Amino acid sequence: MDILISAGDPSGDFHASKLALELKKLNKNLKISSIGGKHLRLASDSFIYNIVDLNLHGLWEPIKHSIALKYLIKNRIIPYLKTNNIKAVITVDFYGFNINLAEAAKSLNIPVYYFISPQVWATRPKRVYRLKNAVNHMFVIFPFEKEIYDKAGVPVTFVGNPVLDSIAKVEKKPVRSPETGSFTIGLFPGSRKQVINWNLPIMNKTAERIRIKYPNIEFKIFGMKSLEDCYKQHSDIKVVFDENNETRKKIDMAITTSGTVALENTLLEIPMIVMYHLPWLTYIIIKIMINVKNVTITNLLAGREIIPEYIQDKADPELIAGKTLDYLANISKLEDMKSEFRHIRNILGNPGCYERTARLIMEKTK
């Protein structure tokens, strides 16, 4: 049996590769073809196209490449689906490309399974109805997403969150005070060059202001080795490459951009402040489309703001430093935040997301 898997960004590529490996455990004869990046390439029997390296992030890059991507589907993917007897297509997040791939597969009567929903709860909710027409089943990673698809009449299963598979439950530890001992603040400026360029300078200035009050506080930038020069372009703070989270587990607090990293910090019970700044035109367009009050997934899961958010004009070093100093003067507030984080883990279900999804897909493709 042959299956095609498609992912278009680094995160989706990683999750798709994990799913591919679980599928192969269940069927030793399974052949996987893929469109994605370095992780899917290693997990596949046949690799069709590296779309991840196009770096199609944000509003403008996907638009610039839209004609080329439609050409790719029409002239390479559809013929590939026809000639290789593909029995199912699995799309992972990355709506712009994957919805067109899903519709192409559906036109050939090939079932489509969507793992990790696009963020229809945040922007463009009408995408649900296009997905309804193109996808046989949604496998979603947040419980509130299931409610959205159920309401729209889309077959859906909440399979748990993949972050639980990589971050085990942590032991409780008390919050240290910067007045009585060592204290480390982690800076998480993102994993894409443009996001780093937008946010790390603000974080660096924030650190400078905090050091005026607490000169002994240690700061560390957590990043990717491939982007080391980008981090160093904006800051002299030590950059840490911490794939196994051993260093991250030891920090006392974080200042981070929104995204998966904030959810990871939540599960590691690291109190944090979230910030995000982007070009004003992009922000205005996104602001018009957005449907949620909070941008941090932890706050959305909690149904209220438990992590302070400093977005766009509020992403100011004085404001972020001021909030950080308030926490450092009132350590009990950080302890309260850690306590809230323990409830979030329970909301996200149980580990085993990839295996669970793989089993359900294999059951449906028999």
Helices, strands, pairings?
Blueprint: E1 2-7, H1 10-26, E2 31-36, H2 38-43, E3 46-50, H3 60-64, H4 66-83, E4 86-92, H5 95-107, E5 112-115, H6 127-134, E6 137-140, H7 143-152, E7 156-158, H8 163-166, E8 184-188, H9 193-213, E9 218-222, H10 228-234, E10 239-240, E11 253-256, H11 260-267, E12 272-276, H12 280-289, H13 297-302, E13 309-311, H14 317-329, H15 331-347, H16 353-364
Parallel strand pairs: 1-2, 1-4, 2-3, 4-5, 5-6, 6-7, 8-9, 8-11, 9-10, 11-12, 12-13
- What low-confidence regions span 5 or more consecutive residues with pLDDT below 50? none
Mean pLDDT: 92
Please work out how many helical segments DSSP would assign.
Answer: 16
Shape, principal axes of CA atoms: elongated
Largest β sheet strand count, sense and barrel closure: 7 strands, parallel
Helix content: 40-55%
CATH superfamily of the largest domain: Glycogen Phosphorylase B
Key descriptive features of the protein:
single chain, 366 residues, alpha/beta, Rossmann fold, 7-stranded parallel sheet, 6-stranded parallel sheet, 16 helices, 48% helix
Could you write a compact summary of the structure shown?
This protein is of the alpha/beta class. It has helices at residues 10-26, 38-43, 60-64, 66-83, 95-107, 127-134, 143-152, 163-166, 193-213, 228-234, 260-267, 280-289, 297-302, 317-329, 331-347, 353-364, and strands at residues 2-7, 31-36, 46-50, 86-92, 112-115, 137-140, 156-158, 184-188, 218-222, 239-240, 253-256, 272-276, 309-311.
